[in-house]
Specification:
With 340 residues, this protein is α/β, with parallel strands linked by helices. It has helices at 22-33, 51-61, 79-87, 104-108, 123-135, 161-166, 172-178, 195-210, 219-227, 233-246, 250-268, 270-274, 280-302, 307-314, 318-328, and strands at residues 41-44, 69-73, 88-89, 101-102, 112-116, 137-138, 147-148, 152-157, 181-184. Helices cover 49% and strands 9% of the residues. A hairpin with an 8-residue loop joins strand 6 and strand 7.
Length: 340
């Protein structure tokens, strides 16, 4: 595993995009390459992996860096208000519209608009957004005159848009329009060499912010960080570091880890437990298989998915490992891997 000492990872000017993982470095390189290309970017990944960090990095690396970066959470606004939030409205356009209001696309001007959680956008508004991206113009709600759209659009989502398109929950034409450049951020459990550099970065940031004397992580806590599964990804790591800076009690953080492990173990067995026909044997078998999956995945990540080397380290024959990977539908590095 790269960078085990936790030394600071490479960082270019323009944001807090820290990475030591090669796959994430490649994503960073692509992001910087397209920063000044006037095309939409779609950023995919689980909640908390750092999609907004990537979006802000693109903005900071572009010629738009001095212009506004406007974030719109498509999941936080009621569908009826989202159109007005995006495009603005004229006085009298609807009940309560007592004056003209400028939308976020106008606020962004020549900057960047981040459409966060775009997978939650109402289908009717998806159609309007598609036309805006195609025509580079929009109208305020209740307006008659088109306004030129000058902002660059970046969209993020933790949803599987391929499935959403198949279920007709997301427009296929909008998906292709947004996905000119697609960046998929891997979860933290698949980029373990990023854990300690990120932890040290957050430690330095919050120690300065809160005036704390804490300037290093205990060795035991660092080891726990490397072993933990991080279901909440970078955001979970960030908040746990903040807690440690404010309450620098090693045992307190260790107790948090233990409670989360127990909760994770309970979640992993939830299917069997909820089955009224399940026995203790069923539950034990399911828990054992999940533990086996996690052990195999960890070794695969540490060997950069060299299956022969992984088989040797796991002390199983190569064919046995391949059979297990096929059974669990594990994919090559760079694709999503489902555990459980």
């Amino acid at each position: 595993m790269g960078n085990p000492s936790g030394a600071p990872a490479r960082q270019r000017q323009g944001g807090e995009f820290l990475c030591a993982n090669r796959q994430v470095e490649q994503i960073k390189e692509i992001a910087e390459h397209v920063a000044d290309k006037d095309v939409p970017v779609l950023i995919l990944g689980e909640s908390g992996v750092g999609k907004e960090v990537v979006a802000r990095h693109i903005h900071q690396q572009s010629e738009r860096r001095e212009r506004p970066f406007v974030k719109i959470n498509c999941a936080a606004l009621p569908h009826g208000l989202l159109e007005s939030e995006l495009f603005g409205h004229e006085k009298g356009a609807f009940t309560g519209a007592t004056q003209r209001t400028v939308g976020q696309f106008e606020v962004a001007a020549n900057g960047t608009v981040l459409l966060d959680e775009i997978g939650e956008m109402d289908p009717v508004l998806q159609a309007k957004l598609l036309h805006v991206l195609q025509d580079k113009q929009f109208k305020r709600v209740g307006g008659k005159h088109p306004i030129d759209m000058q902002a660059r659009v970046i969209a993020t989502t933790n949803k599987n848009l391929d499935e959403a398109v198949a279920k007709r929950e997301f427009r296929e034409d909008l998906f292709f329009r947004l996905a000119v450049i697609t960046l998929e951020i891997p979860p933290l459990r698949r980029r373990r060499e990023d854990i300690l550099p990120l932890a040290h970065h957050f430690l330095a940031t919050y120690s300065e912010q809160y005036g704390s004397p804490v300037d290093e992580l205990p060795e035991g806590l660092s080891a726990e960080f490397l072993e933990y599964h991080w279901p909440g990804n970078v955001r979970e790591l960030q908040n746990l570091i903040r807690r440690y800076v404010l309450l620098p009690d090693h045992h307190d953080v260790m107790s948090v880890f233990e409670s989360r492990r127990l909760r994770g173990a309970a979640d992993s067995m939830s299917t069997a437990i909820n089955d009224p026909q399940a026995s203790l044997i069923d539950i034990g078998v399911e828990a054992a298989e999940r533990a086996e999956k996690e052990a195999v995945l960890r070794v695969l990540e540490e060997t950069n998915w060299n299956r022969k080397e992984a088989a040797q380290r796991l002390n199983v024959c190569y064919k046995t490992l391949l059979n297990k990977l096929n059974k669990w539908r594990f994919h090559e590095q760079g694709a999503e891997v489902e555990v459980g």
